[in-house]
Amino acid sequence: KGKDQLGKRLGIAFEPYTQWVIARATKLKMPYRLEKPLPSVATPPSPIKKKKEFQEVLARMKLERDTWEKKFHASELEKKELKKQLKEKE
């Protein structure tokens, strides 16, 4: 049987494969409990209704991004200084 009949690897198995597994487990007298997969429900993103609200959120996110970039650059400078001091001690 091919992938098109059994299902993709690491994906949801198709019915023929599941039936084969159950039949094989029964034949070998192995306990087999079929767990039904939970339906995946994707929650839609919350809509930003107003342009002004969107711009405020965007401005806040840009400010947060800039803050993190400054922290990153400061830590990079500190790392370089510490490496320099370590080399001087050696």
Automatic annotation (TrEMBL):
Residues 51-85 form a coiled coil. Keywords: Coiled coil. It comes from Trifolium medium. It comes from the Eukaryota. This is Uncharacterized protein.
